[in-house]
């Protein structure tokens, strides 16, 4: 992965200590948010200016953003704010499940925390699993079905190969994309790397730089 080289940042963010374990809710959210911003500014000096604009956000404002569902909706005008909120929330929601869980309530919905899947993988036997964007829990999903709208016609489900087993699924029905990795080609599941690749694949797809 070389286009943006985001992998080191995803790795450091993933290693930040979990937050609020026993307490429930989001104690110390502003402080945890600041720590995420520090990592982003350190790993991406070219974003430091944009990070500085977010440094004064206090607890009430962050709570409001959290409750308004700014995170993950893809609707925020400030992608960096959304990114930092996402990685702060992840520190409160980490799942401790070792292996994949039983099926979720819906293909795209995490059976642990109810958040949506953001990436997927094919295991050593070619079965597909979705991964929760917030808590990293994993659950089985059909290989030929759109997670988001249920489309099952293979002609409506395309995918764009990227490098080394990475691919971007896309549903022609609803237009949603799903970045994924085939572990038969890459070995063990590496989520920071998959999420870094996901940003690149999405960028290349939107730029029209990939072919089916
Ligand atoms: Zn979850
Ligand atoms: Zn769909």
UniProtKB/TrEMBL annotation:
CC per GO annotation: cytosol
Pfam families, sorted: FdhE_central
Biological-process GO terms, alphabetical: protein maturation
Domain of life from the UniProt record: Bacteria
GO molecular function, one term: ferric iron binding
Annotated FdhE central domain residues: 109-143
InterPro entries (alphabetical): FdhE-like_sf, FdhE_central, Formate_DH_accessory
Entry protein name: Formate dehydrogenase accessory protein FdhE
Organism, scientific name: Oceanithermus profundus
Gene responsible for this protein: fdhE
């Amino acid at each position: 992965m070389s286009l943006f080289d985001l992998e080191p940042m995803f790795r450091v963010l993933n290693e930040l200590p979990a937050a609020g374990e026993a307490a429930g809710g989001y104690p110390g959210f502003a402080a945890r948010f600041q720590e995420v911003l520090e990592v982003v500014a350190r790993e991406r000096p070219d974003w430091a200016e944009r990070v500085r604009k977010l440094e004064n956000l206090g607890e009430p404002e962050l709570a409001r953003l959290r409750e308004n569902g700014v995170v993950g909706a893809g609707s925020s005008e400030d992608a960096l704010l959304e990114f930092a909120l996402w990685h702060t929330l992840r520190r409160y929601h980490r799942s401790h499940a070792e292996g994949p869980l039983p099926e979720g309530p819906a293909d795209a919905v995490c059976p642990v925390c109810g958040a949506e899947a953001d990436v997927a993988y094919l295991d050593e036997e070619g079965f597909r699993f979705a991964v929760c964007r917030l808590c990293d829990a994993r659950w089985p999903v059909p290989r030929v079905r759109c997670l988001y709208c249920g489309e099952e016609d293979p002609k409506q489900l395309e995918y764009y190969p990227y490098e080394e087993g990475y691919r971007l699924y896309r549903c022609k029905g609803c237009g949603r994309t799903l970045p994924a990795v085939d572990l038969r080609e890459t070995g063990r599941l590496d989520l920071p790397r998959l999420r870094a690749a996901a940003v690149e694949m999405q960028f290349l797809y939107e730029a029209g730089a990939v072919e089916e």
